[in-house]
Structures are given as structure tokens and as C-alpha cells.
Design brief:
Aminoacid_DH-like_N_sf; 14 helices; seven-stranded mixed sheet; Rossmann fold; globular; Glutamate dehydrogenase; alpha/beta
């Protein structure tokens, strides 16, 4: 019996079972490694603009605090439930351990359709959510960050609310803040940059010239847009993109800076071009060198996996590939080079860590140093994953997750069980 349920949580459990079997972890150890330490559900009442009161459900799941405070984003979306949040917290734990950060995983969210609330209501909801979370979070307990539906402004409201409660400014309570409020240079671009950097590394491994390569991006939010921009700067043609409003396809290559300006001004890619519209359902199976799923979980199922025509699958989103699809991709390892999500999109939490460190020290770095350090950590984790996959003859996802799970397990076993 568990409070967690749903397809995303089931997927996280399934993935852990594969890794636990591979590592031959005794059954009586598995629950302690997998199950979250703490789950919080709160009611967030706010005054609507029309004078009525609305109540939204908010969540936060802290997976483990064995290696340090928990770390993870906060998602505002109508899909949010406790099972999805728990799965994302679990994946964040393996991700932080894989890249060597002193964090456990966390995730939070509010079940809300942002199209139905005003900016003032969004501020009220953001502040109320953080107020409800104050007994459970802190710079050395749980550090929040942005995710789907939240941004730098929401993080500034979170930080201000927590700081008002403490009676002093506590910038290190959240990351992903505006630079003017204690954020770090390079954080906004960090996840997308990391996705593009690792994709370029793989193209080099495969002896594919970026100047002749093509890319397809599913999802044009923060991660997808900056991944597209960086890949274009590496010389790739971005032949298709999509978001929740539709898709665009141009074999000659899309103008990504212009598309980013349009999306920033209008909130989506809708209306950018009537001539380039394309079926969003077909975007994942377009022939290309690099495919970046950077939207939601579980978009690549077994059928899609069988029909992928990319050479590199760079998972910008969390959990975009189902366990059934993984079985297909395992058979297609020579055709599709997978960069698993816990490595591919880890640039965001890496630079969030840098922001936290800078806030604690009150000593800030130049953007070049932030990016250089990010790429150095990604290179090290990529090399470790690749060496493990080759040595054990296992898929890349299994190798990456095994490294993360091993580190968490070792820390728990070393510290022992209290009391």
C-alpha cells in the first residue's frame, strides 16, 4: 500500500527494479533506497481577482537527505499529482549522484492550469505555496528551483516570501532566480546548453560533422529553445520544433533566434508561420541526426521507439521514454545512441548547485566560468557512463542509473540506519 500511484511513478519504480536487479541489491535494502523520505501535501487558498476564494493543491516530495539537502524543481501544471512529483524526485536523486552533487532529489508542484489565472493570482499562489512549505524547506534541507510552468519571477517570489518569514534575505533558499536577486549568470541557458553540448560530443564520437547534421526539438520551453539555439550555433540545421500549440517543419532549417523572440512575445510558437505548420504527432519520427524530446514524460513508447529515425536521442525532458520503449532501444543500440535524461538534462541542476554555492559564499562567478565548470562535470559524467556501459555491456540508461543508485546506496549503508 502506498500513497504514490500513476503511470509516471510506476515507470520510476520499474526503472529502479531493473537497476536493483542488475546491481543485485538485496530485497530488504530496496525499499529504503527507493521510497521517498517525506511527502507533503498542502492546500493553497488565494483570493481571485473577482473577490472569490480558490483553493489549489500543492505537493513537495523529498526523496533522500543522505548526501545533503534535497534539490529539485517546482512544477505548476494541471497534470501535477503526488505520484508524478515523487517519480521526478527519485530521478533527481540518481541524477545528482551521477554528476557528483551533494544533494538528494526533490520535486514539488501545484495542480493548476496557468491559462486560467492572472499574473496577480500567480504571484499570490506562488507566495502561498512557499509559505505552506516553510516548515519543511531551507537552504540546508530542501532547495527549490523552476520547472514546467514556473520561471525566474516565481523563484524571486519564493525567495522573498521565505526571506520575509526569516526576517533577513536568504537568497540560497531557491535557485533559478533573476541575476538581480542573487541568481547566477548562465542558469537560464544551462539545461539546454548541456543537452546540446552532450549531443555535440556524441556526434564527434560517431564521426558526424555538426555542419551537415540536422536536429528536431519536441518542446520549445526553456530547455528545448536553448538546446535548439546552441545546436544551431554548433552548425546543425533545426528542421522541426513543436510545443503544446503545434509544430513547424522546414527542411532548410528554422530561424531559431526569430522563433525564440516570437515564443517569448506570444507564449508559444503558434502564429509564427502558416506555411511551415506540421503534424505534431509525427515530429518524433522525422529523419534527423539529433532528436531532443524536451516536453513531457512518456512521449516515446514502444511503437515510437521502433519508428525513430534519429542517430542521437538526447533526452532533454525527464522520463520521456517508457520502459517498454527502452527494450526496443536496447535492440537498436547500434542505430540510436541514447543520452539518458539523468545525464542529458543534468546541466540545469549542476548550474543550480553553482548558484547555491555562490549565494552561500556571496562570491559570484563570470558566465564563462559557470559554463566551463558545467561542461567539465558533464564530460566527466559522460565518460563514466560510457565506460560503465562498455565494461558491463549494458545500455546507457542502465549504466547511468546504476552509477547514481550505487552512490546513494553506499552513502546510506555507510551512515547506517538511525536509531
Amino acid at each position: 500500500m502506498t500513497v504514490y500511484s500513476g503511470p509516471v511513478f510506476d515507470m520510476a519504480v520499474n526503472q529502479f527494479g531493473v537497476i536493483a536487479n542488475h546491481l543485485e541489491i538485496p530485497m530488504d535494502e530496496r525499499g529504503r533506497i527507493l521510497m521517498p523520505k517525506r511527502a507533503i501535501t498542502v492546500s493553497c487558498p488565494i483570493h481571485r481577482d473577482d473577490g472569490t476564494v480558490a483553493v489549489f493543491e500543492g505537493y513537495r516530495v523529498q526523496h533522500h537527505l543522505t548526501l545533503g539537502p534535497t534539490k529539485g524543481g517546482t512544477r505548476f501544471a494541471p497534470s501535477v499529482d503526488i505520484g508524478e512529483v515523487a517519480a521526478l524526485a527519485i530521478w533527481m536523486s540518481w541524477k545528482c549522484a551521477l554528476v557528483g552533487l551533494p544533494y538528494g532529489g526533490a520535486k514539488g508542484g501545484v495542480n493548476v492550469d496557468l491559462s486560467t489565472i492572472s499574473k496577480r493570482e500567480l504571484e499570490a499562489l506562488s507566495r502561498r505555496y512557499m509559505q505552506e512549505m516553510i516548515p519543511f524547506v531551507g537552504p540546508h534541507t530542501d532547495v527549490m528551483a523552476p520547472d514546467m510552468g514556473t520561471n525566474e519571477q516565481v523563484m524571486a517570489w519564493f525567495m522573498d516570501t521565505y526571506s520575509m518569514y526569516q526576517g533577513q534575505t536568504v537568497t540560497e533558499i531557491v535557485t533559478g532566480k533573476p541575476v538581480a536577486s542573487g541568481g547566477t549568470l548562465g542558469r537560464r541557458e544551462a539545461t539546454g546548453r548541456g543537452v546540446a553540448y552532450l549531443a555535440k560530443r556524441v556526434l564527434k564520437e560517431l564521426s558526424i560533422n555538426p555542419g551537415t547534421a540536422t536536429a528536431v526539438i519536441q518542446g520549445f520551453g526553456n530547455v528545448g529553445s536553448y538546446a535548439a539555439l546552441e545546436l544551431q550555433q554548433y552548425g546543425l540545421k533545426i528542421i522541426a520544433v513543436s510545443d503544446h500549440t503545434g509544430a513547424l517543419h522546414d527542411p532548410a532549417g528554422l530561424d531559431i533566434p526569430a522563433l525564440m523572440r516570437h515564443a517569448s512575445a506570444h507564449g508559444s510558437i503558434a502564429g509564427f508561420s502558416n506555411q511551415l505548420t506540421f503534424d505534431p504527432g509525427a515530429i518524433l519520427t522525422l529523419p534527423c541526426d539529433v532528436l531532443v524530446p524536451a516536453a513531457m514524460e512518456r512521449v516515446i513508447d514502444a511503437k515510437v521507439a521502433e519508428n525513430l529515425k534519429c542517430r542521437v536521442l538526447a533526452e532533454g525532458a525527464n522520463g520521456p521514454t517508457t520502459p517498454e520503449a527502452d527494450l526496443v532501444l536496447e535492440k537498436r543500440q547500434d542505430e540510436v545512441f541514447l543520452i539518458p535524461d539523468i545525464l542529458c538534462n543534468s546541466g540545469g541542476v549542476v548550474v543550480s548547485y553553482f548558484e547555491w554555492v555562490q549565494d552561500l559564499q556571496q562570491l559570484f562567478w563570470e558566465e564563462e566560468e559557470v559554463t566551463r565548470r558545467e561542461y567539465a562535470i558533464l564530460d566527466r559524467a559522460f565518460d563514466t557512463m560510457l565506460a560503465r556501459a562498455k565494461a558491463d555491456k549494458i545500455p546507457h540508461r542502465t549504466a547511468a542509473m546504476a552509477i547514481g543508485v550505487e552512490k546513494v546506496r553506499a552513502a546510506k549503508n555507510t551512515r547506517g540506519l538511525f536509531p
